[in-house]
Amino acid sequence: NAEYMGTLFQMSIKVNYFDISGKALAIRLALVYAGVNFEDNRVQFGDWPAMKPNTPLGYLPVVEVDGVQHTQSAALARYFGRKAGLYGKTDEETLAIDQAMDIVFEATTFPKEDSARPEFIQNVTRRNFAYLNKLYAAHNSGYAIASGISIADLCIYAAITFSFSGFYTNVPSMADMLAEYPALKKAVENVRSHEKFAAYFAKHDKE
Q1: DSSP single-letter state for residue 123
Q2: pLDDT tens digits for 55-113?
Q3: Which of 16, 26, 13 is CA-nearest to residue 207?
Q4: Per DSSP, which regions of 37-148 are E strands?
Q5: Parallel, antiparallel, or unpaired for β 62-65 and 68-71?
Q6: Which of 99, 87, 112 is nearest to 26 (CA)?
Q7: Whose CA is closest to 97, among 107, 88, 85, 105?
Q8: Quick one: CA torsion of 76, 15, 158, 26, rounded to 10 degrees?
Q9: Which of 73, 116, 147, 160 fits 23 for a cystine, CB–CB 3.0-4.6 Å?
Q10: Is 86 helix (H, G, I), strand (E, B) or coil?
Q11: Nearest CA to 185 among 121, 142, 152, 147?
């Protein structure tokens, strides 16, 4: 991890995303955790149409590493999580991290039609949250793995806080959504209160 971290400090990194948390927050937090200076380019919605043709797939986030564009938020979160030492200490921990990330991504990929969201939340989101709650409750670290905070926790924080922030219509509030899952609720709180993110959340309090 020390070798990874060293290369991270030598990189020029520009995170391009809108001025919301969304799919870039876990990437931003991994870089903040590592203590790396990066350009947090928050694209205004009005500027997006002109920028869109110059992105690999026509959507954000796009992260430029030493001038090279990279896309796909989950891949980027895993990459920077690994670089920041947030990807577990064993293959089994890495598996647990990947599992937790995929579970929360599935749980918060809502249908486009808002009329279909209540059924999706009941059948998919709550099922997945119940399992995540069980995983978090299985040990006392307060995080997805026993050895401490990982990129999974940052992705879970980002996905849950954004998905139930009011951005999407016809979904419950975060408080209502997490009421039945105390270990998962505590995990979200643990990321928010982590000392390494204090300055970031003080500046971006809505994230």
Answers
A1: I
A2: 999 999 999 999 999 999 999 999 999 999 999 999 999 999 999 999 999 999 999 99
A3: 26
A4: 39-43, 62-65, 68-71
A5: antiparallel
A6: 87
A7: 88
A8: 50
A9: 73
A10: coil
A11: 142
